[in-house]
């Protein structure tokens, strides 16, 4: 069963097909790959873009969405059990049974979770595609829209230098993965206290080696701005890390994208942010609202690439092996 938990689960050929399909479906509102399909949405954390852009995409593809709470879907607790009750199971039912039930009625599961392991468990039980709407380690739906946006701004055969400045987080990880798979030059700059671990660095090196891109990193943002085509940042404190705010934020001094830093980049350099942005913290108003800022174009493309994801994963006719809609309907 094809799932989308991480970007690097797929190769260049598949990801290119997905982006081509996204572009095709953007202009073909008459094509309905999800006609009659229902996708279950379950979000453990708040969302604007991921939830809305994806639901609109599914509607435009002819499908529909049902929302379920994490309490109902991800192991609901037994309510009304007496405090001193012994032997009453804590969970309403096993996750495996919940997922196997959902597959009787639905055609896909789209979920935002705190812990990547929750996605792995869901996928291991699921007979329908499980699609990651963000977890602690990855944000593949964002990375697809971001690469699509970059390829709209730069020639798609050009090797682009993409610099992420900030936290070594889920958004940065998926962006670096997809950038390397498409052979781009990926640069990272963040404080040493919140950095990639050895196995993550080895993974980036392996992708660079396999696909012909490069990965470089430094704790000095000034060193990587001057050759950048794209400068990207995200929140310094991600959802679920709020209790670390005070201890974490001090380490990010000097990593804000502001006019002084952005002036050191080439004139053509674009600014990107997955949003939500914290104006005045990781980025200033001047850069968010800069003529070279792509932030709202990225948001628009969340819907475009969500179409490619759901078409390719939930309709066999749109899979890479067949490619039939691209050939026969274009
Ligand atoms: N970029 C992104 O995923 O935004 P939301 O948290 O609003 O979904
Ligand atoms: N890194 C952020 C991204 C939000 C879209 C978070 O996980 O909260």
Written description of the protein model:
This protein has 330 residues and is α/β, with parallel strands linked by helices. The chain contains 14 helices and 9 strands. The protein has helices at residues 12-26, 49-60, 70-73, 95-105, 116-125, 140-153, 170-181, 198-211, 222-225, 245-249, 259-262, 285-288, 295-314, 324-328; strands spanning 38-43, 64-67, 108-112, 130-132, 161-165, 185-189, 214-218, 230-233, 270-273. It has a 5-stranded parallel sheet. Helix 5 (116-125) links the parallel strand 3 and strand 4. The radius of gyration is 21 Å and the shape is globular. The model has no long low-confidence stretch (mean pLDDT 94). The protein binds phosphoric acid mono(formamide)ester and norvaline (NVA). Phosphoric acid mono(formamide)ester (CP) is lined by residues 47-51, 134, 142, 274-276.
What characteristics describe this protein?
330 residues; alpha/beta; Rossmann fold; five-stranded parallel β-sheet; four-stranded parallel β-sheet; 14 helices; 9 strands; globular; binds phosphoric acid mono(formamide)ester; binds norvaline
CATH level-two architecture of the largest domain: 3-Layer(aba) Sandwich
Name the CATH class of the largest domain. Answer: Alpha Beta
Q: What is the share of helical residues?
A: 40-55%
Based on DSSP secondary structure assignment, what is the total number of beta strands? 9
The main sheet comes to: 5 strands, parallel
Number of domains: 2
| Radius of gyration using CA atoms only | 21 Å
Quick check: average pLDDT?
Answer: 94
Number of helices: 14
CATH superfamily of the largest domain: Aspartate/ornithine carbamoyltransferase
The structural class is alpha/beta
Spatial order of strands in the largest sheet = 7-6-5-8-9
Please state roughly what percent of the residues sit in beta strands, choosing from under 5%, 5-15%, 15-25%, 25-35%, 35-45% or over 45%.
5-15%
Low-confidence stretches: none
């Amino acid at each position: 069963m094809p799932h989308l938990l991480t970007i690097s689960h797929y190769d260049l050929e598949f990801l290119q097909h997905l982006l081509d399909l996204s572009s095709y479906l953007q202009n073909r509102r008459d094509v309905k790959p999800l006609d009659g399909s229902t996708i279950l949405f379950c979000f453990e954390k708040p969302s604007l873009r991921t939830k809305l852009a994806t639901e609109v995409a599914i509607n435009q593809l002819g499908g529909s969405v049902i929302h379920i709470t994490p309490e109902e879907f991800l192991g609901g607790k037994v309510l009304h059990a007496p405090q001193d009750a012994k032997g009453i199971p804590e969970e309403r039912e096993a996750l495996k049974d919940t997922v196997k039930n959902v597959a009787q009625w639905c055609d896909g599961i789209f979920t935002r979770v705190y812990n990547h392991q929750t996605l792995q468990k869901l996928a291991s039980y699921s007979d329908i595609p499980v699609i990651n709407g963000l977890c602690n380690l990855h944000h593949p739906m964002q990375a697809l829209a971001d690469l699509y946006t970059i390829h709209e701004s730069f020639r798609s055969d050009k090797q682009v230098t993409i610099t992420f400045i900030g936290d070594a987080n889920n958004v940065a990880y998926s962006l670096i993965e997809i950038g390397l798979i498409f052979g781009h030059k990926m640069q990272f700059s963040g404080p040493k206290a919140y950095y990639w671990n050895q196995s993550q660095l080895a993974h980036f090196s392996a992708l660079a080696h396999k696909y012909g891109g490069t990965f470089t990193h430094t704790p000095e943002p000034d060193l990587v701005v001057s050759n950048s085509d794209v400068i990207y940042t995200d929140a310094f404190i991600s959802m679920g890390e709020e209790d670390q705010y005070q201890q974490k934020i001090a380490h990010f001094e000097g990593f804000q994208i502001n006019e002084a830093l952005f002036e050191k980049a080439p004139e053509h350099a674009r600014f990107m942010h997955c949003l939500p942005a914290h104006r005045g913290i990781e980025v200033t108003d001047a850069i968010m609202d800069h003529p070279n800022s792509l932030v709202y174009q990225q948001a628009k493309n969340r819907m475009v690439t969500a179409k490619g994801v759901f078409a390719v994963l939930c309709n066999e006719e749109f899979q890479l092996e067949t490619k039939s809609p691209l050939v026969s309907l274009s």
